[in-house]
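User: My instructor asked us to take a sequence, write out its structure as tokens, and then describe one feature of it. I'm not sure where to start. Here is the sequence I was given:
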Amino acid sequence: MHLLFTTSFLWIFIDSLKLRGILDNKTIVASIFKEGQMSVKAFILIEMEPKSINGAIQALKGIPQVKSATPVAGPYDIVAIIESKAYEDIPRIITKEIQGVEGVIKTTTLLAFE
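Assistant: Let's start with the prediction itself. The structure tokens for your sequence are:
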């Protein structure tokens, strides 16, 4: 018998177990994300200072985990897609690398569930 669950269901279930103290983060991530089998994807909505978008796109594309960086119209200026093999790397990539790009005012992160 095989049970199939969506990734989003698994993360919600895992978070509930962590909140109750049943699991710790290191245990579950090591079990779910085996090297090379699964990656974490996030969409980063970026607000920029005026006139800094083109330079920021080039800088973002130089970050290895950034798979694309596209200028958009609307409340955000750039949408970047990042991928990492470890969920724990996502905050570092955003705060140290993406938010470190000149002209970035604010980021909003959307984790993908696929």
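For the description part of your assignment, you could build on this observation: The longest helix spans residues 7-19. Try explaining in your own words what that tells you about the chain.
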